[in-house]
Design brief:
By secondary structure, this protein is mainly beta. The protein has a single domain, classed as Lipocalin. Strands 1, 2, 3, 4, 5, 6, 7, 8, 9, 10, 11 and 12 form a twelve-stranded antiparallel beta sheet that branches. The longest helix is centred in the first third of the chain and has 31 residues. The relative contact order is 0.16.
């Protein structure tokens, strides 16, 4: 288990490092061609996104027994412990590179209902504590297919990496004694998916504009898609954007977390250089 987790963390670190190195190479190239008409432009955005979470977590109880515990994530998670979210974009002419990083650590405990057993199972009352740590790293290469004073649209392709780690404690209050002792379970899954999509912006006037982004993908996930749209205001140093973001994963029934959805308003501040 430890070696598997180490491999996952090393893989994630390698992806981030390679993307940063790639962007670093582009930065060096931009400096070397500063006297040319075409220059690299960069934007780093820090944003706050406190999404609602929906989904289902399944554990084998006991492991390998075929029985499972199903938990509705939205019933349990409402305490955000730590979050980091940011996006880096490099663009020259019609070509762009982007890296988006999300890390969330959330937890909560409460009394709820679970389903235990094969098939539809038997509903039981429990007091459950759940912790969920999530990495979502997206990297893509884009190409502008439309560039005007009023609008910009780019098509892109890339990869998205999702890593989920959960820890749960369950104290079951069954319909009849004796009740089982408290259970302490943990699990993790990671997924690599290829994505394609479009992104861009529509200018309303000199400062106000509408940013948009949509992607779809598949791979180790059955299906994943993301939507982002809102309103932004340009300054000389960057911009501020208020938008709505929706990210969904559809997983197989045998996966730890299924039909995971993250959605809610997002506020971002971008710095151009």
């Amino acid at each position: 288990m430890k070696s598997s987790k180490l491999i996952k963390e090393a893989s994630l670190a390698a992806v981030i490092l390679l993307l940063m190195m790639f962007c670093g190479i582009n930065t060096a190239a931009a400096k070397n061609t500063a006297d040319t008409a075409d220059k690299w432009q960069y934007e780093f955005t820090i944003y706050g996104w406190l999404p609602s979470l929906d989904g289902t977590i399944k554990y084998d109880v006991p492991p390998g027994s075929g029985s499972n515990v199903s938990l509705d994530v939205s019933d349990l998670l409402d305490s955000l412990n730590f979050v980091f979210m940011g996006t880096f974009v490099a663009q020259k002419n019609k070509l762009s590179y982007a890296v988006d990083l999300i890390y969330m650590d959330v937890s909560n405990s409460k009394s709820t209902d679970i389903t235990v057993g094969p098939g539809q199972g038997v509903p039981l009352g429990v007091h459950a504590g759940l912790g969920l740590k999530t990495w979502v790293v997206t990297g893509h290469v884009g190409y502008d297919v439309m560039q005007t004073d009023k609008a910009r649209m780019a098509v892109f392709g890339g990869v998205r990496y999702l890593d989920l780690s959960t820890d749960i404690s369950i104290d079951i209050n069954g319909p009849a004694p004796p009740n089982p002792p408290p259970s302490y379970l943990s699990g993790s899954n990671d997924f690599w998916d290829g994505i394609v999509g479009i992104k861009g912006g529509i200018m309303l006037n000199e400062n106000w504009y509408i940013p948009y982004y949509v992607d779809i993908g598949t791979g180790q996930s059955k299906f994943t898609w993301q939507l982002y749209a809102g309103i932004g205001y340009n300054f000389s140093w960057g911009d501020i954007r208020l938008a709505y973001r929706y990210l969904e994963y559809d997983q197989d029934d045998d996966k730890l977390v299924q039909d995971l959805k993250l959605y809610g308003p997002q506020l971002g501040i971008g710095f151009r250089f």
